[in-house]
Amino acid sequence: xxxxxxxxxxxxxxxxxxxxxxxxxxxxxxxxxxxxxxxxxxxxxxxxxxxxxxxxxxxxxxxxxxxxxxxxxxxxxxxxxxxxxxxxxxxxxxxxxxxxxxxxxxxxxxxxxxxxxxxxxxxxxxxxxxxxxxxxxxxxxxxxxxxxxxxxxxxxxxxxxxxxxxxxxxxxxxxxxxxxxxxxxxxxxxxxxxxxxxxxxxxxxxxxxxxxxxxxxxxxxxxxxxxxxxxxxxxxxxxx
Length: 240
Hints:
This protein has eleven helices and nine strands. The protein has helices at 9-12, 19-22, 50-60, 67-87, 96-110, 117-130, 143-152, 166-171, 186-189, 196-206, 220-229; strands spanning 3-4, 25-26, 34-37, 44-46, 137-139, 156-161, 182-185, 213-217, 233-236. Strands 7-6-3-8-9 form a five-stranded parallel sheet. Strand 8, helix 11 (220-229) and strand 9 (233-236) form a beta-alpha-beta unit.
């Protein structure tokens, strides 16, 4: 049955599905039984933005730094943690404690030279709590349409994200995450995308074969290419 937004993977060609495509009638890949969604950038986004949130929290602790500067520092800090996870043995293995340390490392790098260790630790703890709050997130423009179409097709809806256990609290309240019947943060699976074990763990918990799953995400490698290597269908969406 045709539904707005999804298309056979053969037509995706690795290109993002744009807003115009979302208004067309296209069909799900044959045999798909579950739609698995990335979360941040695909279904929800921070509100305010990450740099703005960092600047606001820093100001609350007496540190005045521009969001523009923090945006650049955040990008570098994020990439550094990605390299650390990729070089670990086994690569991309994670846990609740690793995710805590990952974000602690990101904040430490972002504020390096701007704040002393004690202030940086206070800012980190404040930011950790901030992004656990449902009020810190909002739906992306196409997020509700994506989830509604999957549900209308009778597919199971799952969230599979490089988020940590805070996702449970957010998913219980924020649209359209509340409609997912399965929530899989990386910290609970023990693996981060793009590890093949991440996708295998989702398969095992859902009880479906790779060909029965389609992954939607905004990251060409972590969401789309990695899912295809695992044997899943996948669709690339524009961020937000």
